Amino acid sequence: MENLRKKIPSGQDVAIPPFMRDWLAAPKLHFIDGHFVASESTFETIHPGDGSVLATIGRGGKKEVDAAVAAAKASFERGEWRCRSLEERCAALEKLSTLILEHLPALALLESLDTGKPLRESFEGDIPRAARNFKFFAEFARQEGSSCYPQGNVFHYSQREALGVVALITPWNLPLYLESWKLAPALAMGNSVVLKPSEWTPLTAAYLVEFLLPRVGIPNGVVNLVHGFGDGEAGEFLVSHPDVSAISFTGETRTGRAIMRSAAVGPTRLSFEMGGKGASVVFADADLEKAAELCARAAFRNQGQICLASPRVFVESSCFEAFTEKLAARARAIKLGNPLNYQTEMGALIGSAHFEKVKSYLSLLNTPARVWAGGKTRSPGYFVEPTVVSGLPLDHAVSCEEIFGPLVSVYPFQSEGEAIEAVNATPYGLSASIWTRDGDRAHRVSNALRCGLVWVNTWFLRDLRVPFGGQKRSGLGREGGAFSLDFYSEWKSVSIQFSGEEG
Ligand code: NDP
Question: Residue 392 in contact with residue 369, Cβ under 8 Å?
């Protein structure tokens, strides 16, 4: 990593190298049955740091989706991938993981260009984690066994089988990371896939299929990529395709609802990771320095565009002022600027529509709100200052709605029960953090919170074996470790009668 890091100058803005400029100048095509396929219509992807056009992308429709699903189905039926041994499939995924790390500087730069996130975050976070997803699922799937129930001369055993064609629909906030989170277990289990990345962030997926995938020996038709839009276009055609056996979707809750309606055609197996309105609860006995540091990270990492972010912080009244000042001080110290500078800590929001949405919430921060830090936007590009606010009622739009930007609202509470009620007072239920040195309280409060993930005295600490997903409107099902293998496969039970007496 350190050697690769040397390729990125630390104090200066990174320029796009000539080979990448050339690559970006060519339109990015769909990848169907091992071939690059153009569409009649195209769209442009931009760099949120300055609004400049990065590349032209094929805009897939019914024709491309039908071709991609047909290719996936044919490859599945031919069995060239699903009938390979688990060991061979896992070896290919491990190779992909290694290649991603070898291409880390290029992939990190592309991810930051496409999303506006700081290069440091792509280089040290997103891309290595994408590589890790492939490696993890390769290692994890290899450990899989199954049970056998012998009864005399009869043996009952079970084995996993691939599902068929799996649709993978991903958002823009953590592009390659979330694509790999789905691709790795889906491929390990022997499925053929059609990936539809967000139209905002198609570049790292395009790079993956063009430069890395051909080097790992996965047969044509097993991995297909269709670029394009969701509603009424490629995404919708894909999720309503009758030959799709399962859909893994990460995105907004209302998109999840629409997909569920489209998927009724199957009915199709679904796994949904959706919106959130996470919270932190800070008790007066907590390590307030550490809590402020991690609450700042939970609010501002990736410009607040993380489903697991914590845009609400509930603080015990006795330490409310002291804690909020610490949090605000950290917000003020964050280096906001050019995503392509390695020292930058916060970059730009994804694009103009999202920038306008976040700005509309900033415009609501009038009395009785107290703005402790930030509150302003910066242009050119789509920059929002890390913002800390207090004094908002719990039923205020900023308190209730998923903003998905660098805006954290702090609320005082008197009792544990009041804090629990406030955290739970949202239709979402993805994640929460509890800050206290009292173990009994941590256990009690975590039991009372209605969300899929709870961290105590930390945030965003992941073990990929752990079930990941949300309660209430934040999700449907769980992925991670065995939960992913369960989603991307189905069990078949076989009973064999050997000759002789029945058991
Ligand atoms: P969207 O729901 O807008 O989009 C997600 C994906 O779905 C995109 O590829 C989109 O295409 C596609 N899509 C949109 N409409 C349809 C449709 N009718 N049929 C099929 N596909 C469709 O989410 P965002 O990209 O805006 O991502 C942000 C959201 O993702 C936030 O709500 C965040 O909380 C959530 N998220 C949840 C996570 C979790 O683990 N729970 C993790 C990360 C993010 P296109 O955009 O190209 O039109």
Answer: yes
> Which of 83, 25, 84, 32 is closest to 57 using CA atoms?
25
Distance CA 315, CA 291 (A): 10
CB distance 199 to ligand 1 below 6 Å:
yes
Please confirm, yes or no, whether 307 is among the known catalytic residues.
yes
Helix, strand, coil abundance in the chain, percent, nearest 5 = 40, 25, 35
Residue with tokens 């390590």: 287
Task: Assess contact for 287 and 457: CB atoms under 8 A.
Answer: yes
- Contact yes or no for 101/92 (Cβ under 8 A): no
ω into residue 18 within 30 of 0, thus cis? Answer: no
The protein residue with its alpha carbon nearest to ligand 1, atom 35, reads: 251
Residue 368: name the closest of 316, 432, 411, 420 by CA: 411
Cis amide leading into 118 (omega within 30): no
Q: Is 275 exposed, middle or buried (0-12, 13-18, 19+ CB in 10 A)?
A: buried
Question: Pairing relation of β-strands 428-429 and 370-373?
Answer: unpaired
Q: Is 363 exposed, middle or buried (0-12, 13-18, 19+ CB in 10 A)?
A: exposed
Strands 192-196 and 471-472: unpaired
Q: Is the CB of 170 under 6 A from ligand 1?
A: yes
φ, ψ (nearest 5 deg) of residue 306: -130, 135
Q: Whose CA is nearest to atom 39 of ligand 1?
A: 273
- Per residue in 130-171, pLDDT (tens digit) is 999 999 999 999 998 888 999 999 999 999 999 999 999 999
Please give the single-letter amino acid code of residue 317: S
Determine whether the shortest distance from the Cβ of 240 to ligand 1 is under 6 A. Answer: no
Distance CA 360, CA 170 (A): 26
Q: How far is the CA of 86 from the centre of ligand 1 (A)?
A: 31
* Cβ neighbour number for residue 35 with a 10 Å cutoff: 13
Alpha carbons 223 and 244: distance in angstroms, whole number? 14
Give phi and psi for 431, each to the nearest 5: -150, 160
- Ligand 1 midpoint to CA 216 (Å): 29
Q: Does the CB atom of residue 258 touch ligand 1 within 6 A? A: yes
Cβ-count burial of 306 within 10 angstroms (0-12 exposed, 13-18 middle, 19+ buried)?
buried
Query: How many Å apart are CA 342 and CA 124, to the nearest integer?
Result: 11
How far is 475 from 276, CA to CA, in rounded Å?
Answer: 9
Structure tokens at 430: 């993805």
Q: Each residue of 51-98: pLDDT tens digit?
A: 999 999 999 999 999 999 999 999 999 999 999 999 999 999 999 999
Query: Does residue 295 have an active-site annotation?
Result: no
pTM, to two decimals: 0.96
